[in-house]
Amino acid sequence: MRAIWKGAIAFGLVNVPVKVYSATEDHDISLHQVHNADGGRIRYQRRCEVCGEVVDYSDIEKAFEEDGRTVVLSKDELKSIPAENSHEIEVVQFVPSEQLEPMMFEKSYYLEPDSKSPKAYVLLRRALEDTDRVAIVQFALREKTRLGALRIKDDVLVLQSLLWPDEVRQASFPSLEADIRISAQERDMSAALVESMAADFEPGSFTDEYQVQLRQLIEAKLEQGESLDTEETFGVEAGEGGKGEVIDLMEALKRSLDRKRGGGEAASADGASDDEADAGDEEAGPAKPARRTSGTKAAASRTAAVKTGTDDAKPARSSAKSTSASAKSTASKSAAAKSTASKSAGGKSTGTKTSGTKDAAKPAAKTTRARKPA
335 by DSSP, 3-state: which? Predict the structure, then answer.
């Protein structure tokens, strides 16, 4: 970081030399303007409306206009203002932090000790810690006298510039002056919704989605060129936005609570039902081949029919667990039927061979008897 200002904190008669650094920065992706016809960069020129000439920045002065009269103020005249030349951060009050209106906070700056010994710096920091208060200060920065709050963050003094009271607008909305009736049930449900969404604030868990998606768009454009498909890039139609649905307030609260309370339970129930369905498929799977195999052979079909009929009577009088057990029993018995069918088929095959041998022997005996009369 680079120091933008040097000065000293005036803490009574104690002088605390410090360097001032911007504590925040803009993370937005920088874009510039171009001509959509040819991509040419758009440049802004400081052109005088009287003579029409382009004026250098060094030749530009500031002016104030009122009632048709213009007062031009040179740089030297502006620098002559006493407050502009002050490099002192004057402590004027120590106040409880809860008395500061957050809307008044403008910009934050880190203060670094700017002396060989940081003892005065540490002393002021300890004083703020011990009293649990915030120092209200006045200082001048960039041609403006400012009001500020001096507080501690991670053992570092932080100066937060504040808006002046007349810079904060007063809110006046006639619609809020109407008599609005809120029922006790609506208040209870809204409080329950707040409680369901309660959490400790963790800034790191939030993301600037627009900047992330802008970077995604730039990278897609660099890769695809003019053939860029925004719907493919983002998964939604370009320019698509949420369409608000006007619904009853109580219904909206109920839906919100149901989503927060029942979301996890519903997901768990769905997962359990899917697992059970998968388990059922695995258990019932082996029984199908057994029934198809038994249907190909008559003896095995009759055996499977008898056994299946016996097993099918049981599930009607039992629970879903008994059904799974019955399916396993049917599968094992069908497998046994398959084995029986194989043996039966083997027996039939042996019987056929034996019968064929006997039939082949009979004609030979008839031939022998035919030769005797001859």
Answer: helix
Q: Which of 92, 89, 95, 91 minimizes the C-alpha distance to 134?
A: 95
Residue 307 is encoded by which pair of tokens? 């056994």
Say if residue 158's pLDDT is above 90. Answer: yes
Q: Are 115 and 17 in contact (CB under 8 A)?
A: yes
What would the two tokens of residue 318 be?
Answer: 């039992």
CA atoms within 13 Å, Cβ hemisphere of 172? 3
For 140-151, the pLDDT digits (tens) are 888 788 999 999
* Mean local confidence (pLDDT), 101-105: 93
Structure tokens that stand for 105 in this block: 């906070």
| Planar angle of CA 75, 81, 86, nearest 5 degrees | 110
- For residues 215 and 280, is the Cβ–Cβ distance under 8 A? no
- Per DSSP, 202 falls in state -
Neighbour-count burial of 160, counting CB atoms closer than 10 A to its CB (0-12 exposed, 13-18 middle, 19+ buried)? buried
Q: What is the CA radius of gyration of the chain?
A: 45
Encoding tokens for residue 100? Answer: 């500061």
Among 329, 289, 292, smallest CA distance to 307 is for 329
Residues pairing with 112 in the sheet: 19
d(CA 34, CA 15): 51
Could you give the CA distance from residue 47 to residue 60 in angstroms, rounded to a whole number? 11
Instruction: Determine the Cα–Cα distance for residues 212 and 248; give it in Å rounded to an integer.
Output: 35
Number of Cβ within 10 Å of residue 199's Cβ equals 6
Q: 249 near 243, Cβ under 8 Å?
A: no
CA dist 159 and 90 (Å) reads 12
CA–CA separation, 87 vs 17, rounded Å? 10
Residue 19 host element (H or E): strand 14-22
pLDDT band at 321 (very low <50, low <70, confident <90, very high): very low
Burial 219-246 (b: 16+ CB within 10 A, else e): ebeeeeeeeeeeeebeeeeeeeeeeeee
